[in-house]
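hey so i finally got around to running both of the ones u sent me last week. sorry it took forever, my laptop kept dying halfway thru and i had to restart like 3 times lol. anyway pasting them below in the order u listed, first the sequence line then the structure token line for each. didnt double check formatting much so if smth looks off just lmk and ill redo it

first one:
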Amino acid sequence: MISTTRAVFRVEQRINYYIIMVNGFHQSQTQYLNQKWRQSRGLTINPNTFGPLTNLPDYTFKDGRPTPLGVRQKFRLEKQRGYAERIVKLVKEIDFAVERHAKLKEQEKQERQQILDSKLKPKGDVLL
């Protein structure tokens, strides 16, 4: 059975040491970024995932030709395109479900009205 204990020591303002003890063996890692500071300013947790160094090309041609996409940049674009396609698909499914639910409610309402209209018929002198 694995017993895990964790201890966090705050050494400096920006360096956190996480010490994990598993079955008597110490494992530690250092986290150099102040995550709370980045979150309070609306920045990403990892600064290498977004920004001009990541999104812009590494070089440009002086004559204005477009630069080819990097391998990681192309991968990120394909990943974002996949996310967009999935979002559009799921939104269409939700719209279909909402419309179908509204149609079913309307049909149920019409069926009830038809049943009430067929049950309640005038009798007597009104028919003549």
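and the second one:
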Amino acid sequence: MSAGKWLLPFLCHAAAALVACPSHAHVLHSARVSARAPVVAVEDGKPAPSRGGVRLLEWIPSQQLLVTSARFAWNTLWKVMLSELAPQSDDGDYVRPAPQMGTGATWPAELPVVSGRYHLYLGNACPWCHRVAASARLRQQLLAKTGPPQPTQFLSFTRLVSDPQRASRGGWVFDSDDPDPLCDAADLKGVYDRCTPGGYSGRCTAPLLVDLETSTIISQESADIIRMLGQVSLNPSGRAVDLYPTALRADIDATCKWVYTQVNNGVYGCGFATTQSAYERAERGVHEGLSRCDELLSSQRFLCGAQITEADVWLLPTAVRFDGIYASFFRCGRRQIRSDYPNIARWMKELLQLTGSDLFDLDAARRSYYTDLFPLNPGGIVPSGPSAADLGFPVGDGPVEDATAFSWRSV
């Protein structure tokens, strides 16, 4: 192996250690003095062998050269990998790519409202998938896989697995216990290819809403899917949950806009920022947004009043991931929901009861973030918590029914 093949990774590793603590000079000095001494650790009172590295300081005379080179190499590789993962502005701000396919926020008039024809592809870790699933669950259009069929169930769904090593493009694949119903694809790219004459060349994202009968993509944009699903219903009672009531539409649209900008996308702006100023802007916006939500919820049950609306559905996925994932992983935990935003905490637990605890697995989502987004966590170590139990999330599979939590419309 040539020196270049191992030196650059080593320098990157050294940079991480050196930058972490400004007092590492004494460590380097000790390493130089005792470079040939055996390196031992203590386990249960007994010495245990450990590796001492390649001892670069024996043949690199300048600590300054080592630190400067390692820091430059690490930072350069990190920025390259992060720009591939998350597009950046010239100022280092994360810029989310726009959706590429969809029919807008209106249910296509040519598609009949029938059960068993329309299918959602959803990933547990993805907050955009979560909000689609939550909206469909609140409207009784998406029920648990283990339950008996219900007359209101408009959609079926597949739970995707996050595994960028197995995926041919993107990060979503299928497991044998929840296979693809359209074409038995190995990953989501296969579904996109099946639905696209000549093959698909864009981003393979979820959520994805597909017409199984015609192998057609209806939409890959979560906001549009949420809105269009509010226009269809199989409820035999003659009424349906309305998450976008006419009288509140202006307020809902305005609330969704700032919740998305400051909170939903803001946490990603913190995690994917490549400059200090970009990070600080995003982090400040996150807590301004959360404070605004907490203030609203101090005097009313939900964000836009006494009933659940789309605005609550937009906030929920970020809120349930915040303390358990985003606060540490995206470096935005200066304040946390469980300790600093009591009204959001109360609201969040009620939304989890109304949507059902089976809709989201926090521990699995944490593993996905910490292992799949490896430019932010190259060591792949996953924190032990906080878990759903630590955060006091409600348990029990099914959603709690409470008609007073909703606005209703005639169908």
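quick thing i noticed on the 2nd:
The mean pLDDT is 87.
anyway thats it, ttyl
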